[in-house]
Write a structure and sequence with these properties.
With 452 residues, the protein is of the alpha/beta class. The protein folds into two domains: 228 residues, Glycosidases (TIM Barrel, Alpha-Beta Barrel), CATH 3.20.20.80; 210 residues, TIM Barrel (Alpha-Beta Barrel). The chain contains 13 helices and 20 strands. An eight-stranded mixed barrel has the order 1-2-4-5-6-7-8-9, surrounded by four helices. Strands 10-13-15-16-17-18-19-20 form an eight-stranded mixed β-barrel, surrounded by four helices. It is elongated, with a radius of gyration of 25 Å. The N terminus is likely disordered.
Length: 452
């Protein structure tokens, strides 16, 4: 009963943290691990295929002279399998910060794509006074920022942070925190910080012998810890495609739909940025978008390359949804590969995740057999990572929505990358009555890749 109570309390605390953070961040639960030579030979292919790991931190150095011989190979092989990887230094009190940083810098993997991290262990720093620790970290901060253009992530226990740093936390407010609380409740930091990386358990991961530290981003996005030079920017600053539905012609106000008129495709045709248009056709086993036929015929009439999508429902049989989709949208009517829109809701249970994966795969196979090509998969970044990653990564083109991220494109768990980024839901285009979704190709994807 005590264990059950602890689980319930931890779950509620996590939900409260995520709820609080979601006012400022797009929250995506992405798990990671931190490793060292103690893990010995790691099968990174199995680690990536497990779908449980999105990022890795490998130990690089300790003190002024010691280095981990496996760090560079860990980082290289993890990245080869599509994982994000970084390195960390274990800070010691017995050597100067400059000597330790120089040791770290000389062994920092050139292909690491995560912020560098400094590890402050209880056994070394619990008895050190706050001022000494803060001064050491400030010096490491300055050296790291000069070399890498960013402050390091600070790893420590919640106890060390609360006792040594929280009283002067503004000094380190721009450092990402990596808080260790293995086997305990979600960390509660004295200064109220709710965004951090949480080292929450010591547990097995496929491909790694024995247990390994399991970590989680809480209130953070993977792009928050990516070195800026490796963030892939879109190939240009303009949209290259749009997707539309009845929502571009009508809006629900006080429970009633207000009609704003049809899209004027003759006006839209003046916009030379638009290379492709995806139009909602169907939803579930019975719903047909009321503007689909009009939008399809008019968009094609005005020279646009057009594709259609089906909004997948967890409430209808896959075969019924497939038959409904191809009845409304025969393959000869479109220019682009079909698309499945997967938006099954937040916080999936293992059972629901398994159901969604099974049904989307079944629907995709039926569509492939009819159209002669695999469909594209659409989802928000959160939905994709929670429900579909990484098993759909390599076999399907991915159309991923991510809005509140500035210039940072979608990050998906596991190998590979998005193919189309839906970066805005508030686009304004002449001829379209209401705001429209704007999209960009990944630099490695183009119109030919999505054409039938």
């Amino acid at each position: 009963m005590k264990k059950l109570t602890e689980i319930i309390v931890n779950t509620v605390l996590l939900l409260l943290i995520l709820s609080s953070c979601s006012q400022h961040h797009e929250i995506v639960i992405i798990d990671g691990i931190d490793v060292s030579h103690h893990q010995e030979n790691i099968d990174w292919e199995r680690v990536a295929k497990s779908g449980r790991v999105g990022f890795v931190f490998a130990k690089a150095t300790e003190g002024a002279t010691w280095s981990d011989s496996r760090c560079r190979s860990y980082v290289a092989n993890a990245k080869k399998e599509g994982l994000h990887a970084g390195a960390y230094h274990l800070l010691k009190t017995s050597s100067s910060v400059v000597d330790q940083f120089n040791n770290f810098k000389s062994h920092f993997p050139a292909d690491a794509d995560l912020f560098p991290m400094v590890d402050i262990e209880d056994r070394d720093f619990m008895k050190v006074d706050s001022k000494t620790l803060q001064n050491m970290l400030q010096e490491f901060n300055e050296l790291c920022e000069k070399e890498y253009g960013t402050k390091p992530i600070l790893y420590m226990s919640a106890g060390v942070y609360n006792d040594k740093l929280s009283e002067n936390s503004s000094r380190f407010k721009n450092n990402i925190l990596f808080i260790s609380a293995i086997g305990k409740s979600i960390p509660r930091l004295r200064d109220g910080r709710k965004s951090f990386i949480w080292q929450h358990s010591l547990a097995p991961i496929p491909g790694i012998r024995g247990n390994v530290d399991n970590d989680r981003l809480v209130g953070l996005d993977i792009s928050d810890i990516l070195l800026q030079e490796v963030i892939k920017k879109p190939q240009n600053g303009e949209y290259q495609g749009i997707d539309v539905s009845h929502y571009q012609s009508e809006k629900k106000i006080a429970g009633k739909w207000k009609d704003y008129g049809k899209i004027d495709w003759s006006k839209v045709a003046h916009d030379k940025n638009i290379q492709f248009v995806y139009i909602k056709a169907t939803q579930g086993r019975t719903i047909t978008d009321k503007y689909f036929s009009y939008n399809l015929s008019e968009a094609k009439k005005h020279g646009f390359k057009v594709g259609a999508y089906h909004f997948y429902s967890t409430e209808s049989k896959v075969e019924d949804q497939f038959r409904h989709f191809i009845k409304v949208c025969p393959k000869e009517n479109v220019d682009l590969i079909p698309m499945i829109d997967v938006e099954p809701g937040k916080n999936p249970s293992a059972k629901k995740r398994s159901k969604v994966q099974k049904e989307v795969r079944e629907l995709a196979k039926l569509i492939e057999a009819y159209y002669g090509t695999k469909p594209m998969i659409y989802a928000t970044m959160r939905s994709y990572n929670e429900y579909l990653a990484p098993i759909f990564n390599k076999d399907y083109l991915l159309y991923i929505a991510r809005y509140q991220s500035g210039s940072n494109p979608p990050i998906i768990n596991g190998p590979d990358h998005y193919d189309i980024w839906q970066y805005s839901e508030t686009g304004q285009i002449d001829g379209i009555p209401l705001p429209v979704d704007l999209c960009r190709f990944h630099p490695d994807t183009n119109l030919k890749d999505i054409s039938l």
